[in-house]
Task: structure prediction
Amino acid sequence: MPTKNVVVTGRQAKMIDRLVSSGQYQNASEVLREGLRLVQERDREEKAKLKALRAAVQVGIDDLEAGRYVEFRDSHSLREYLRSLAEDAVRGVAEKAAAE
Result:
């Protein structure tokens, strides 16, 4: 396995020592490998989130281009529209619960 020299801060060294002495890891290399696995996992999650965000943006663009949107004159009419959506959602949940 290739060897790399890594410089860490004093605080990081103490953390590594604490994790090893707790028995959670056998040595500093295990701690650092776990840290790298977490970085890889975070990178995968960020890529997945970005892909989902891009897909959602495309849905919005497609809806706009197809004329599937609602315009509001002012913030009051937007609030009223959102209130009616919320009431419809609550009513739908209540009707579903009553049917069960």
About this structure: Helices lie at 10-21, 28-65, 75-99. The mean pLDDT is 96.
